[in-house]
Specification:
alpha+beta; Glucose Permease (Domain IIA); 2 domains; 3-stranded antiparallel beta sheet; 4 helices; 14 strands
């Protein structure tokens, strides 16, 4: 299924910032110009800082995805690895024993999320919930989240979940069911700090480690069997 033109523009973004951030940047810039015209220095300073921070937060650097091993699983988010768990039962989004990796995005991380492995999107589902701090374990189960189920080109199932946090209240996902996607491709973002969990088959060879800082579309988390 082909992607919509709107989704294509966001996924193939050529701007230095994500399009989701443009309204915030423009609003901040408008206030900056108003305060500059009026001549209220403290508000000029505050609005200027807001504009600069917003540009920084919504930055979307271009990342060249070099040829990678077809079994490699890339991290879907920038940030720090805060969890590596082997789940022995079926009570998880994959529905069978799996490996769960969690990446925490601070407000200083790039917040554009990327596809971890090439394949076809089987399902995209949004789950309303609460807004605990995203670095807490209970955030995976209780926070608002957006879950993507992907079938890899060699028939394996991978699930990756965007999770809202204490401050992050807006999850954007630009792909839909039936879409064919490539590893490293942009697919969404979460505003203002959060986390992303990825569920892989139990026999995945995990190569990342706790507290490692990873980059979406660049760092390999592990290799499928």
């Amino acid at each position: 299924m082909p992607l919509s033109q709107k989704a294509i523009k966001k996924i193939n973004n050529k701007w230095p910032v994500a399009r989701e951030g443009l309204p915030f940047i423009l609003i901040g810039l408008a206030f900056f110009l108003i305060f500059l015209f009026i001549g209220i220095f403290p508000l000029i300073l505050l609005s200027g800082i807001f504009v600069l921070f917003t540009i920084y937060f919504f930055r979307d650097p271009e990342r060249v995805i070099h040829e990678i091993h077809k079994k490699a699983v890339l991290t879907p988010a920038d940030g720090k690895v805060i969890g590596i768990h082997r789940l022995k039962g079926p009570d998880n989004p994959l529905g069978k024993p799996s490996v769960k990796l969690s990446v925490f995005m601070s407000i200083f991380s790039v917040h554009v999320n990327r596809i971890p492995v090439s394949g076809k999107i089987l399902k995209v589902s949004h789950h309303p919930g609460r807004f605990f701090s995203a670095n807490l374990n209970k955030a995976s189960e209780q926070n608002e989240n957006n879950r993507v189920t992907l079938l890899t080109t060699d028939g394996q199932t991978v699930v990756f979940v965007q999770i809202a946090g204490l401050i992050a209240r807006r999850i954007a996902c630009w792909i839909g069911e039936g879409d064919t996607v490539m590893a490293g491709q942009r697919y969404g973002l979460i505003r203002f700090g959060s986390r992303l969990d990825i569920y892989l088959p139990m026999d995945t060879r995990v190569v990342t480690k706790m507290n490692h800082y990873v980059k979406a579309g660049k760092t390999v988390l592990g290799y499928l069997s």
